[in-house]
Amino acid sequence: MTFPSKLVPFTDSEVRALVQPRPGEVRVGQVVSVLGASACPEAWQQAHRAGARYALLGIPEDLGPRGNLGRPGAEGAWEAFLQVFLNQQANHFLPSRQVLLAGRVQTRDLQEAARDLGSGIEDVQRLRELCAQLDARVAPILQEIVASGLIPVVIGGGHNNAFPILQGVVAGLRARGEDWKRGLAVVNCDPHADFRALEGRHSGNGFSYAQEAGLLASYFVLGLHEGFNSQEMLDRLVACGGRYVTYESVFVRGELDFDQALEQATSHALAGSSPVGLELDLDALAGMPSSAQTPNGLTCEEAARVLHHLAHRVPVAWLHLAEAAPALAPEGGSRQVGKALAFLVSTFLKAC
After folding, report:
1. Please, which of 47, 111, 120, 172 could form a disulfide with 143 given CB 3.0 to 4.6 Å?
2. φ, ψ for residue 300, nearest 5 deg
3. What does the longest C-alpha to C-alpha distance in the chain come to?
4. For residue 76, how many other CB atoms are within 10 A of its CB?
């Protein structure tokens, strides 16, 4: 087994450069394990045997959102996250020593190829072709992580990466002897179902492509916004066995409360007895700089409750945080994005 060619691992010196030490205190970046640029081919397994449970992976790209006619900027979320997460206090609340800092997917060449592309028909088609190339880079890395027994924690990038994450996780489980022929369960906290037509890869059709590929055993969308999902897409989602609870049904009309919505998501995910992927699109958070930023949505605390509840109740296969776009934030907003992502990941690690 060899390292996937498109993984860019961290070195200890690169991590140290991100950490701001203070006398008498220990930062998360000082205790997490690092895959290392010169690690042996069995590095994933060695990290797992040494006590790592989670593998942090970044996908710094905005090809998928742009291919979905959305705004750019999601490529900066990984760096914004690291600046905050690695400088948190390493104390007994957070299992820092169980975290492996794996690295990032190599995306710079793809981003450069997309730099001058706009929203014309040919440009959008090219963005979708580049997104498909990214799929082929992401899936093998996820396979390596899961095959070694680690739980991936992925920071995007766009929500397009949900498709290759599913591909890689299923392949990794099969490599471990767990053949989930019907696919896996997914709970997606998202204003959008991301179940658009199979029209070329982008951030709006990761789950429809996953359904077509037989990777989805069950799918639940929590917090879907009623005004931003077509009837055709909703009908197709339900016809495939998917379910959803809308934001308006909880927070506007009060047809059910938040805890009841969480229980519906949990029950649907557990029904098939398969591993469960947790997906959180940062578009779901009110005021969060993202491709489809919205003034009405969950608070960061409510999003953390989603992750805590599900991570505590279901057999989690991965966590994926997508669509945060620090480049769209006002001055100083990059730290806001980084703190939100670090808070959400920390909540997950504490609950899982």
Report:
1. 172
2. -65, -35
3. 58
4. 22
